[in-house]
Design a protein that fits this description.
This protein is α/β, with parallel strands linked by helices and 178 residues long. It has one domain: Pyruvate-ferredoxin oxidoreductase, PFOR, domain III (Pyruvate-ferredoxin Oxidoreductase, domain 3). 37% of the residues lie in helices and 22% in strands. It has helices spanning 15-28, 75-81, 114-121, 127-138, 145-155, 164-177, and strands at residues 2-10, 32-39, 47-55, 69-72, 90-94, 108-112. The protein has a six-stranded mixed β-sheet, with helices on both faces. Strand 2 (32-39) and strand 3 form a beta hairpin. Helix 1 (15-28) packs across helix 5 (145-155), helix 3 crosses helix 6 (164-177) and helix 5 (145-155) packs antiparallel against helix 6. The two termini are 21 Å apart.
């Protein structure tokens, strides 16, 4: 198993955290992982993305030029990154913030109303967890939902751990709706 993943959005949407959580959960299940975060110059509202590789074998390169799955959280990320998804790959997009569908017809796409599902779980800030849950449902070899929920206590910073109950609900909500 080898999955090259790409997460993209703007700062404050939890893009880097989602990638970190995938890595911790997959490592816990005995897989090899790599994680390359990329931040814009701004603290909030700038660009943020990360590349993640999850593999049963050692990883020769952490670069993900043609991801097998991509999560985009905002319209600029959709417009910029839909083209990098490999043919036959999966593109999950946050329909709550993106008012147009992907233009690609050679990939699988999944629209997720991430903000609405996150609000129902308790906070719009958990939209990244909704998207991660949807990804896990569509790509179950990456890591199990249980493993992801299990690493929240380690992955989420101390100042935000009070949101982990909401994060669990959001992960489950995204998983159930994918």
């Amino acid at each position: 198993m080898y999955e090259g993943l790409f997460f993209a959005g703007f700062g404050g949407q939890g893009i880097i955290l989602a990638g970190k959580i995938v890595c911790l959960a997959a490592m816990g299940e005995g897989k090899h992982v790599s994680h390359i975060p990329s931040y814009g110059a701004e603290m909030r509202g700038g660009t943020a993305n990360c590349s993640v590789v999850v593999s049963d074998d050692e990883i020769a390169s952490p670069l993900v030029p043609r991801p097998s799955a991509c999560i985009v959280m905002n319209k600029p990320s959709l417009l910029k990154f839909q083209s990098i998804v490999q043919v036959g790959g999966l593109l999950l997009w946050n329909e709550s913030l993106i008012d147009l569908a992907p233009s690609r017809t050679d990939i699988e796409t999944l629209a997720v109303k991430a903000n609405e599902i996150a609000e129902a779980a308790g906070s719009y800030k958990a939209a990244n967890m909704v998207m991660l849950g949807a990804l896990l449902k569509r790509k179950p070899d990456i890591a199990s939902l249980e493993a992801v929920i299990g690493v929240l206590g380690v992955a989420v910073s101390v100042r935000h751990r009070e949101l982990n109950d909401i994060n669990r609900k959001a992960l489950t909500g995204g998983y159930e709706r994918a």
